Amino acid sequence: MSEVLKVYLDLDVLSYMAGIPKDELWKVPVARRVVDLAKNGEIVIVMSMAAVETSFSRARLPKERRRRYLCLLTECLESVPY
């Protein structure tokens, strides 16, 4: 039996999955493909929401904006095993 590839997602991939950035829109389908691979069990997503929260804190985003982004990322990941 072969192992499933584990893929670490960083904040950039997550943000494009959630549709947060409006530049470099070509990355959105790539991010969605990663999600589809995970949904189909072809890969396993490895990530840390604590790392995501820390990145937002360090970026000094306003609290409301940070909360909105975290909600978008959480919604995006609800249907993806990680």
Helix-strand layout with pairing:
Blueprint: E1 5-8, H1 11-17, H2 27-39, E2 43-46, H3 49-58, H4 63-77
Parallel strand pairs: 1-2
Helix pairs in contact: 1-2
Features:
4 helices, single chain, 55% helix, mainly alpha, 82 residues, two-stranded parallel sheet
Write a concise synopsis of the structure shown.
The protein is mainly alpha-helical and 82 residues long.
Structural overview:
This protein has 82 residues and is mainly alpha-helical. It has one domain. 55% of the residues lie in helices and 10% in strands. A two-stranded parallel sheet has the order 1-2. It is globular and about 45 Å long.
Query: Could you tell me the radius of gyration in angstroms?
Result: 13 Å
Secondary structure: number of strands: 2
Number of domains: 1
Major sheet, described briefly? 2 strands, parallel
Indicate the percent of residues in helices.
40-55%
The averaged pLDDT comes out at 81
Residue runs with pLDDT of under 50 for 5 or more positions: none
Oligomer: single chain
Structural class designation? mainly alpha
